[in-house]
Amino acid sequence: MSKIIITCAVTGSIHTPSMSPHLPVTPDEIADQAIAAAEAGAAILHLHARDPKDGRPSPDPDIFMAFLPRIKQATDAVVNITTGGSAAMTVDERIAGAIRAEPEMCSLNMGSMNFGLFPALDRPRDWTHAWEPDYLEASRDFVFKNTFKDIEEILRKLGRERGARFEFECYDLGHLYNLAHMLDRGLVEPPLFIQFVLGVLGGAGADADNLVFMKRTADRLFGSDYAFSVLGAGRHQMTLASTALALGGNVRVGLEDSLYISRGTLARSNAEQVGKIRRIAQDLSLEIATPEEARAMLGLKGGDRVAF
């Protein structure tokens, strides 16, 4: 990659409002933080929606449409809409926002897995909403469902029918082989954009050795037909992002993945995290891709062909 793509995951469905006062919840907050992250250097904005009344993850297309047009009007960043939603949603619910918006890019999780959020209950806190501890406790019994049929349907409905390309989220080694299977069947086309996701309970641990092994496996499976990015969950965010840069990869930061800017210090915004990883990349003499450069690198359809 000649330039580095920074993705910012603005809110997600993992953290709950009581964990940080800076987590964007309402459409206005999501729009404001997404725009600021783009101004700080993020070429791609990865977006979830939340119920503005209590901050719980929401699949409601109307909520997506309350912030997507504003983001598009204020920035030329690539909008990447989740198809993961949360493990508590059905697949149809998870893709509803993307079906409505027809974005340039969507995330796509490449396999079913356990997805444990319940360790967050170990830290005492005053919960703002009753749903928060219940949601985290329920993750002991979550199976994040992404069957071959699910993946095929998402590729068809959002890819072939609506022209989106994908951020293929791979939480473990087998997910890379699932993606290779889809490539062998002609259901996906290069260039592939693979997000190595490390540090989620139920997936691969956030170790540099795991990252290197996943990259070597992807090199063997996909050769020059892919680019990779790295997501380190929680306290591993900046360490693994910096390792990704050293390995020639791209990076993802944002309050979906970590609420902190440094040990014990909450990030005040998504833009603060984007600014930090941008400085690290520039200190390594790496150039940051603009949104238009990211579009060219990933073969995207263009911001003029979305439905928002």
Describe the structure.
By secondary structure, the chain is α/β, with parallel strands linked by helices. The protein has one domain: TIM Barrel (Alpha-Beta Barrel), CATH 3.20.20. The chain has ten helices and 14 strands. An eight-stranded parallel β-barrel has the order 1-2-5-6-9-10-11-12, surrounded by seven helices. A two-stranded antiparallel sheet has the order 3-4. A two-stranded antiparallel sheet has the order 7-8. A hairpin with a 2-residue loop joins strand 13 and strand 14. Helix 2 runs parallel beside helix 3. It starts with 5 loop residues before the first strand and ends in a 10-residue tail after the last helix.
- Number of distinct helices: 10
Strand order of the largest sheet: 1-2-5-6-9-10-11-12
Low-confidence stretches: none
How many distinct beta strands? 14
- Structural class, by secondary structure, is alpha/beta
The helicity comes to 25-40%
CATH class: Alpha Beta
Distance between the termini: 30 Å
The CATH homologous superfamily is named: Aldolase class I
Strand content: 15-25%
Mean pLDDT: 97
Q: How do the helices and strands follow one another from N- to C-terminus?
A: EHEEEHEHEEHEHEHEHEHEEEHH
Query: Total domains, how many?
Result: 1
- Rg, please? 18 Å
Shape, principal axes of CA atoms: globular
CATH topology: TIM Barrel
Tell me which CATH architecture applies here.
Alpha-Beta Barrel
Major beta sheet summary: 8 strands, parallel, barrel
